[in-house]
Design a protein that fits this description.
By secondary structure, this protein is mainly alpha-helical. 72% of the residues lie in helices and 0% in strands. The chain is built from 9 helices and no strands. The model has no long low-confidence stretch (mean pLDDT 82). Keywords: DNA-binding.
């Protein structure tokens, strides 16, 4: 056979590839779930790989086949969370009702308090900057109605920075503030200045 000739995979090879992909998906989901579960009980800097693999019920070496460290896993979760937020919130984001958008955002965050606290406070500057960069990239592609007098990239950057900073305050020193009160404050600080 010519060395340039490609051989189509056999049915067994296709089945093996599918089983391997399914295992990879299942393992990564277990690792994500384990870290999210641990974040409800521990601060992110206190969480070790050993704790994650025990919670996920996978081998220690398995973790490193998927992620180089805990921060990479947290960043992966952040990306998935931002993507989930954008998908879930798209109809609301397209609404001209700033209050409705802000309340939906606050509800989304409140349902993921431990994870958001880890991303914005406990994960450190690198994780926070990475999450903000991803949010800005996603935000730039969403047809939200911003003030036409403000350049789009500036409006998105301001909104994301203001949201992240204000939410970090709410999840830290402002923990006792009620959801509705915080939603009104977030709308005034982050959304009102850039929305038309």
């Amino acid at each position: 056979m010519d060395h340039k000739t490609r051989v189509a995979p056999t049915r067994n090879q296709e089945g093996d590839r599918w089983r391997k992909d399914a295992r990879v998906i299942k393992t990564r989901a277990a690792l994500r779930s384990a870290l999210i579960s641990l974040l409800a009980r521990h601060d992110f800097p206190d969480i070790t790989v050993a704790m994650i693999v025990e919670e996920a019920n996978v081998g220690y070496a398995t973790f490193f086949r998927h992620f180089p460290d805990q921060t990479a896993l947290l960043t992966d979760i952040a990306d998935a969370t931002i993507s989930e937020f954008m998908t879930t919130m798209m109809p609301t984001l397209l609404s001209a009702d700033r209050v409705q958008v802000t309340r939906a955002l606050v509800d989304f965050i409140a349902e993921r308090t431990a994870l958001c606290r880890a991303l914005l406070i406990g994960g450190g500057d690198v994780v926070r900057r990475d999450a903000m960069a991803r949010a800005i990239a996603y935000g730039s592609s969403v047809p939200v109605i911003f003030d036409p007098d403000i350049p789009l990239d500036l409006a998105v950057t301001h909104a994301v920075n203001a949201i992240f900073s204000t939410v970090a305050w709410w999840l830290g020193p402002g923990r006792g503030m009620k959801r509705d009160t915080f939603a009104e404050m977030l709308e005034r600080l982050a959304m009102a200045p850039v929305r038309s």
